[in-house]
Amino acid sequence: MDILKSKENTLFKKIGMLSIEINCPVYIVGGWVRDQLLNRTSKDIDFLVLGDGLKFAEELGKKLGGAKVSLFKTFGTANIKYKGYELEFVGARKESYTESSRNPTVQSGSFEDDLHRRDFTINALTISLNQNDYGQLIDLFNGLEDLSKGIIKTPLDPDITYSDDPLRMMRAIRFATQLNFKIDKHSFEAIKKNSARINIISKERIADELNKIILSKIPSIGFKLLDESGLLSIIFPEFTNLKGVEEKNGLRHKDNFYHTLQVLDNLAQNSDDLWLRWSAILHDIAKPATKRFDNKVGWTFHGHEDKGAKMVPQIFKKLKLPLDHKMKFVQKMVFLHLRPIALTKEEASDSALRRLLFETGEDIDELMLLCKADITSKNEVKVKKYLKNYERVRERLIEVEAKDHLRNWQPPISGEEIMRTFQISPSKEVGIIKNAIKDAILDGEIENKHDEAFRIMLNKGKELGLIVPK
Ligand code: CTP
């Protein structure tokens, strides 16, 4: 790799000049070097300074003019935002975690100390920005070879590296998933052995890694590794509870863990939306809690969509995922995930389609993608039939929507108009009338238009004993 040809070289030259001026060696290190070698672009660049990293960043900030420098004195790191880049500076250090603490104790160290304490050989590659060997790649731990063979390996004994910072166990699995690399055997053994240490890591950092796994091309790779290593049952036991197949009277149900992973991978081919991918993960989460065996029909999971939707907030809270509209979206997807499939069972009425459009609102396309991903039968004939039915429902939804515009449904008659017409104040009657209008539209009795809705309002009002004053 030739950094002289990289588009960042002008910036690197300036950093190199500063290193001469203040007599402080500096190297590019970590993810940016790895990503360049893999032909991936990255806007985050880490620099290793043999000296005071904070001072280096401050001086550079002056040279770059207008760049925003932030100093994190407790961690001994500095960040500069410059032309869309995030530049991170850190002084070389030895670092270790104490058994119980979440914060590293930081001691300064040599170039070698610093690289030894990094997570993986592929992340410990550096490029010198110094006068005598500017642009030279330094590879202390055969990172280049691991990069070409696709191996995740720690520079030190993996027990030490993972114990120093247990989040690295999640990072190993995340990189293996993103890059489609293998985790070295000893390293994976060490993850299994140290898995319980993940408990000292903050939930937010764990969620960050989990989300990166979920956003990968084939997320199941990561979840299978998380499961095998023992990490998944610690950080997300509700998910591993889906594992297993029970048999009774010769009837078996499917393994919902592997089914869910298949749904997630299917969905990942059609959508990059993190929250829709979370919906796939959680769509059957209440199956263990609702499982019954019925002598006539075999295994049932009645109400798992309803119970699953109710479980979403507590799971989000525990995993420190956002408790806002994103969670509400996931809840809605989990709650409605059976509905389009139910509509394929028999020729669905227009009214059933209208009701689905009304309940999903904006999110109908996402719900349909989730349902399509949920088709995981191994029987090709069945899959073909389901996909055909699914396409039919999709077409009919488009027809009904074009006619009735229920996606962003606004009632044709507002509560204010009802109160004004009957000269009443806010009361339950207003709600009853609004519902009657909504039902009449969804059932196809009237069109989604003001005058027809007005007629329903008058009829319902009369039924309720309301009068229209002269
Ligand atoms: N690092 C480490 N241990 C960690 C986190 C980071 O040793 N727990 C080191 C690695 O050398 C890593 C560098 O710090 O390459 C920068 O970390 P970070 O920006 O978090 O990760 P990247 O490797 O750049 O990758 P990504 O941006 O995909 O997270």
CATH structural class of the domain at 9-148:
Alpha Beta
CA-atom Rg in angstroms: 29 Å
The structural class is alpha+beta
Specify the CATH homologous superfamily of the domain at 9-148.
Beta Polymerase, domain 2
Instruction: Compute the number of helices.
Output: 24
Please tell me about this protein's structure.
The chain has 470 residues and is of the alpha+beta class. Among the domains are: 9-148, Beta Polymerase, domain 2 (2-Layer Sandwich); 415-463, no CATH class. Helices cover 53% and strands 12% of the residues. It has 24 helices and 15 strands. It has helices at 9-21, 31-37, 53-64, 111-116, 143-149, 158-164, 167-179, 185-194, 203-214, 219-229, 231-235, 237-240, 256-268, 274-282, 287-290, 304-319, 325-336, 339-345, 350-360, 364-373, 380-404, 415-422, 428-442, 450-463, and strands at 26-29, 44-49, 68-72, 77-82, 85-91, 93-96, 105-108, 126-128, 137-138, 151-152, 182-183, 247-248, 251-252, 292-294, 298-300. The strands form five sheets. Strands 3-4-5-2-1-8-9 form a seven-stranded mixed sheet. Strands 6-7 form a two-stranded antiparallel ribbon. Helix 16 (304-319) packs antiparallel against helix 17 (325-336) and helix 19 (350-360) packs across helix 21. The N and C termini lie far apart (86 Å). The chain binds cytidine-5'-triphosphate. The site of cytidine-5'-triphosphate has 12 residues, from strand 2 and helix 7.
Compose a concise summary of this entry.
53% of the residues lie in helices and 12% in strands.
Structural topology:
Elements: H1 9-21, E1 26-29, H2 31-37, E2 44-49, H3 53-64, E3 68-72, E4 77-82, E5 85-91, E6 93-96, E7 105-108, H4 111-116, E8 126-128, E9 137-138, H5 143-149, E10 151-152, H6 158-164, H7 167-179, E11 182-183, H8 185-194, H9 203-214, H10 219-229, H11 231-235, H12 237-240, E12 247-248, E13 251-252, H13 256-268, H14 274-282, H15 287-290, E14 292-294, E15 298-300, H16 304-319, H17 325-336, H18 339-345, H19 350-360, H20 364-373, H21 380-404, H22 415-422, H23 428-442, H24 450-463
Parallel strand pairs: 2-5, 10-11
Antiparallel strand pairs: 1-2, 1-8, 3-4, 4-5, 6-7, 8-9, 12-13, 14-15
Helix pairs in contact: 1-3, 6-8, 7-9, 7-10, 13-14, 13-20, 14-17, 14-20, 16-17, 18-21, 19-21, 23-24
